[in-house]
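Re: 3-methyl-2-oxobutanoic acid structure - here you go.
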Amino acid sequence: RKKVTMQTLKTLYKKGEPITMLTAHDFPSAHVADVAGMDVVLVGDSLGMVALGLDNTTEVNMDDMILHCRSVVRGAKSAFIVGDLPMGSYEISPEQAVESSLRLVKEGRVQGVKIEGGEELGPTIKRITQAGIPVVGHVGLTPQRQNALGGFRVQGKTCTSAMQLLKDALVMQEAGVFMFVLEAMPPEVAALITQRLKVPTIGIGAGNGCSGQVLVQIDMTGNFQPGRFVPKFTFGGEAARGIAQYRDEVKSRAFPSQEYTYPITKEELQKFEK
Ligand code: KIV
Ligand code: NA
């Protein structure tokens, strides 16, 4: 498969072909997403929960992101790879945001960065874009701001709130955002925002009127928790079943059977046993 670039994504968008995105947080999860043909692999700060066992994304820092981005980049050879700017790495000033974005690209080796927020990020997005770094905007439910949003709550359920989301997206697009993640909003609102924009939108809990979809891989596999949006794709039960079978077969000495062992010739064995 040829490397997916920003140009590839633009072409998919122009053709009206849905863009597929999945998160990954390490080498194997990146490999499987890439082999399965994902257009974009996102190293989301959700890795704080799904890989590090934290309660939310607020504690995730730049060093965590860089370590995980580097591992994902080694595993995903073809997908376009985006890394999240974690909370605290971009809010202070546009300069801070450029510095953090440069680190994600130069040390984390990702192709683009994702930033959570709204119209207030205009100048910041402009600066990151001017530094030659593709920016994905993330609007709607922005988990880093859960304390201000009053928890993980669906956004855009009132006309005022939906209007603000649209305004946020338009300002961010104007500042240089080349793709959006729209999280947790009514499908009609996401579809309308998508229609008004000139760049693709990738939805999560935002209906099928977006230009593509994204899921958190661990939600999907169900190894950690049952999928919120994805019960029908969940195969986490398979991993748990496999591990339980391994446990049982070790206990009963059924594993490892002969086929899983390394042979030695009879001659050598007889000499050894003497
Ligand atoms: O961190 C993440 O996984 C994300 C997706 C939910 C879009 O931001
Ligand atoms: Na995220």
